[in-house]
Amino acid sequence: MTEQTSPETVATVEPTEAQIAANAATRRKKMTMAIGAFLLMGIAFAIYYTFVARFNESTDNAYVGGNVVAINAQTSGTVEAVLAEENQEVKAGQALVTLNATDADVALTQASAQLADTTRQIRQAFNNTGITNAQLAQANTAVTTAQEAVNRRAPLVATGAVSKEEFATAQDALAKAKAAQQVAQSQNNSATAQVANTDIAHHPSVERAKAAFRSAYINQKRLAVIAPIDGIVAKRYVQVGQSVAPNLPLMNLVAANQVWVDANFKETQLANLRVGQDVEIKADMYGSAVTYKGKVQGIAIGTGSAFSVLPAQNATGNWIKIVQRIPVRITIDAEQLKKFPLRVGMSMEAIVDTHARDGAVLGSTADTAATADLVTTVYTQDAAEADAAAMKIIDANK
After folding, report:
1. Does pTM surpass 0.85?
2. CB under 8 Å to 3, separation ≥6 — which residues?
3. How would you class 104 by CB atoms within 10 Å of its CB: exposed for 0-12, middle for 13-18, buried for 19 or more?
């Protein structure tokens, strides 16, 4: 039979002093390495904070903003066609909605006829000055002739060569000639006053008729509701057949390449923020794959709550202090926006580099002149076309 060995009889092997010393050395080495790693991390963080982190102010309470242009009708009418749909890209001057033109065409025809008729009347008024000038000259000649007749007869009355009756007749003729001269002078003055210091095209009556024509012409042109800027239709409210009036919203238009970021920093972060500082911006849409370059364009003069519809009333017994936020507007590099477009309202993260602190604490980088995205010239052509059409009618009738 095989002899069984019980567990109690197994000898326990004790580590030698050399093994214990080796293990202790290994533990000390690992501890030293761990402490060294923590020290290096601490030194690295201290360097990073000293030269980078303490100059950065960041917030994720930031959103994309943009010019949302409300497209309104400028005249009354019934919608005949809607030429732009939501999310469609449109160009400045492109027709978005057209209204029925019947009433506007009638008004324009009436204004055109009135302008032509007024021009002809004023042309006749200018012609009348020539007539009254001739009549006045004729009256002056008659007075001169009658005066000469009286002068010739006056010395002959005493000698009896001319009878008193003939002399009286000559005097009556002179009196009548002078009366006719006064009438001619008055008529000439009246005719001259009608056209003094002006010409047919700039006569007040013609200008008044021209203004009415311009109004009717522009109203007729405004039946086509056009886009004031390049952009994308964001929201459409208008429908075909709808009766619209001036200032009634028809749709919204957003300029996709004219957006910015409104970052809301805590008031405790504003001490070193300045206008013009560089900003790194990231969008939740692209994550860390895209980092936009931006600049602080302006720092608001008040907190967001101060300009709310119902501002907070802190003079109450249950007041609790809440750290306020100040809106800071940040512009974005235009070339990056073309490659990586953003949408209004999207969430962003902004990190401001506060190294440069020579910029303004309040205000904006914009000057008093309107920036390019706040100017439109699509409406000026209507006035120019109206003036040209009015002058064409005047030239044809003067």
Report:
1. no
2. none
3. buried
